[in-house]
Amino acid sequence: MSVVNEKVSPISPQSQLSPELQLVGKAIEKEKAAITPGRRRRKIVSVFVKNGLGMLLKDSITRKLMGKSKRSRTEREHMHRIGVRLREAFEELGPTFIKLGQVLVTRQDLFPEEITLELEKLLDKVPPIEFAKLQYIIEQELPNGMDTFEWFEEDPLGSASLAQVYKAKVKDGPVVAVKVVRPTVEKLFETDIRVIKKMTGMLRKRLPPELSAAIDVNGLIDDYYSSAMDELDMVEESRKMVEMAQYRKSAEYVDVPEVHTATKNVLLMEFIDGWLIKDFPVDFFTFEERVKIMIDLVHLYVQQMLDGHYHADAHGSNIMICKHRKKAIVIDWGMTGRMDSVLAQTLMRIIMHIQLNQAEDVAEVNMELFTPTIYTDVVKLKDQLRALALRYVNAVQGSDRYNYGNLVLEATAIGLKNYCKVPNGLALWAKGFSATEGAARWICPEISYGEVVEAYEIPILKSMLSKRFDYRANASLLSESAKLITTFPRRAARIMENVAENKFRMNLQIQPDVTIRNTLNQITNRIALALVTFAIIIATGFMISSIPDGVFLGMQKTTIANIGLGTSIFLIIFTLWRLFRTRKHRSLF
After folding, report:
1. Which value, to the nearest 10 degrees, does the dihedral of the CA atoms of residues 539, 545, 551, 556 take?
2. In 67-181, where does DSSP find H-type helix?
3. Within a 10 A sphere around the Cβ of 442, how many other Cβ atoms?
4. Do the beta carbons of residue 530 and residue 575 sit within 8 Å?
5. Which tens digits make up the pLDDT trace of 271-282?
6. DSSP 3-state assignment of 165?
7. Which of 4-8, 60-64, 301-305 is the least confident region?
8. Contact between residue 423 and residue 408 where contact means Cβ atoms under 8 Å apart
9. What is the distance between the alpha carbons of residues 435 and 314, in angstroms, rounded to a whole number?
10. CA 427 to chain centroid
11. Selection from 136, 104, 293 nearest residue 203 by Cα
């Protein structure tokens, strides 16, 4: 596999470019300069208003949107209309929001099904931009520019919101696929994220305390931004592809493209001559070959996960069947991530317990994923997780409803419904698991996906045990144990001396929960407001009674009384409105 450029190649001086490309470069810089927070904010607001989405900023709509309570048919239809408008707005706003919509699809634990089903229709295929702009990037980043290629087809193989892909032949080299990032998309992402963070801040204030304690909105946006930036970095994507090549020995029928060259915005990789996985002719493979591809695809995903990786977008449009090698090739490694190997092992333990009908153990292991808040009823949470596990026992793992990715999404929804904090990466992992299940079903619908996962239990167990008993883990355990043993006599002696001399003291500091602190602040503010109102009434009365000639600062007694009374009535009404508003918010949940 060719060496990947660690840094972007030096930018070619403008003087080395043709006059036409110099003009293109100036046009690109002008487009970037036009992308400012103020303009994007106005654009986003205008698109939302045009699509009738201004109501999302209303408290009642926001809570119904984020809530998971049962809805009437009218409410479901209303949510569907919101989903349609949201999809249309995201498509109009461009790459940042298209990718955001694709991430929100995975959060079926947060948003109604009517919303997520509509967002699944978001089109990431957009009209291609003129080739000259991408040629400018190639000239800038490849050492030899367009002279790198013997020939280059200017009509793109594919055009997405982030990049376009072309077919070309390297001089004295192979035919390659050339992936080029659109020139203004990174500036657009960075600008839009700043605006989105402010919008999510407004959204967070409209959530009830229980849900706000469970959902880390800022964390969701940070994870999304980090993932998006990785997708825009072709060096990072090439690294992932090189890293995944280590699984070639264990996954004979699944592969990744060869990487030839990568810079920040340009990636040259092996051109795959074949079909998308959902379009290949069935008679191209024998049944045995299709079974082998399916098994390798499933086992590859599971093993990657156990090693701390996941591919969140391994659906049929990102997997091709190579005509020449007769293998399934995963061609897009943009939307990937890392996960804690302990978390991955926890997910595998859940699957194993379900296979043995150990619902109680499933509930206990699930509790390791969730962090209860002060609003969580742990007994109720475990009962719901236990009931969920029983639904999946002996279920056929070959449908949209019963697959392990959907199991994790349902468990996550239960956790949020009971106001638990849930790791943000779980939803993307679940999306990847479900996408892999769908791809495997396209290849070989005759075999149950769940049975293939279950058949991999021995390697799963070996992987889990090897990490638990790895020499690094043992070294850490040995070091901590040695420290405990060698320092125990000294620590015990110090404790006994303090007890004997009556010097034993314990410092206890209570750190209240953020929600409790906010609630106490609200109560304090309202009491202070009530005292201010009372003080105004009393002060007004004293002022009126102490004015000797009935005039103070040019105002009569009746005028002063009316001002004091009006101010007091306004403050009283404001306090009552705030109390009513708080009670209304809580009643929605």
Report:
1. 70
2. 73-93, 95-105, 113-119, 131-141
3. 17
4. yes
5. 999 998 888 888
6. strand
7. 4-8
8. no
9. 6
10. 7
11. 104
* DSSP-assigned states of every residue in 322-349: ETTT--EEE---SSEEE--HHHHHHHHH
Q: Which residue has the tokens 């249309």?
A: 88
pLDDT at 11: 42
pLDDT in tens, 233-268: 899 889 888 888 888 877 888 899 999 999 999 999
Is 548 buried (19+), middle (13-18) or exposed (0-12) by CB count in 10 A? exposed
For residue 177, is pLDDT > 90?
yes
Please tell me the predicted confidence (pLDDT) of residue 523: 76
Q: Tokens 């009372």, residue?
A: 534
Residue 161 pLDDT: 83
Q: Residue 204: how many CA atoms within 13 Å on its side-chain side?
A: 17
Residue 259's pLDDT is 92
Q: Is residue 396 very low, low, confident or very high in pLDDT (cuts 50, 70, 90)? A: low
Greatest alpha-carbon pair distance for the chain in Å reads 108
Give the contacts of 534 (CB within 8 A, at least 6 positions apart).
none
For residue 136, CA distances in Å to 26, 266, 288 come to 10, 11, 47
Exposed/middle/buried for 289, CB within 10 Å: 0-12, 13-18, 19+?
Answer: middle
- Which residue, among 443, 418, 137, 195, has the nearest Cα to 315 in the 3D structure? 443
CA distance 287 to 254: 16
Residue 163: which H helix or E strand, with range? strand 163-170
Of the candidates 328, 339, 276, the residue with the CA atom closest to the CA atom of residue 305: 339
DSSP state of 106: T
Residue type, 164: Q
d(CA 420, CA 432): 23
pLDDT digits (tens, 9 = 90+) for 138-167: 999 999 999 999 999 999 998 888 899 999
Question: How many residues are listed for the chain in this entry?
Answer: 589
Alpha-carbon gap, residue 225 to 216, rounded angstroms: 14
- The residues that bridge with 556 in the sheet, in sequence order, are 551
Q: What is each CA distance from 230 to 225, 237, 241, 337, 460, in whole angstroms?
A: 9, 7, 13, 9, 29
pLDDT in tens, 337-347: 777 777 878 88
Q: Which residues are paired to 551 by β-bridges?
A: 556
Q: Which of 401, 465, 474 is nearest to 438 (CA)?
A: 401
Higher pLDDT among residues 309 and 146, named by residue: 146
CB 218 within 8 A of CB 62: no
Contacts of 287 (CB under 8 A, 6+ apart): 444, 446
**Per-residue model confidence as pLDDT tens digits over 7-37:** 333 444 444 778 888 898 899 999 999 999 8
Beta strand 254-255 pairing with 328-330: parallel
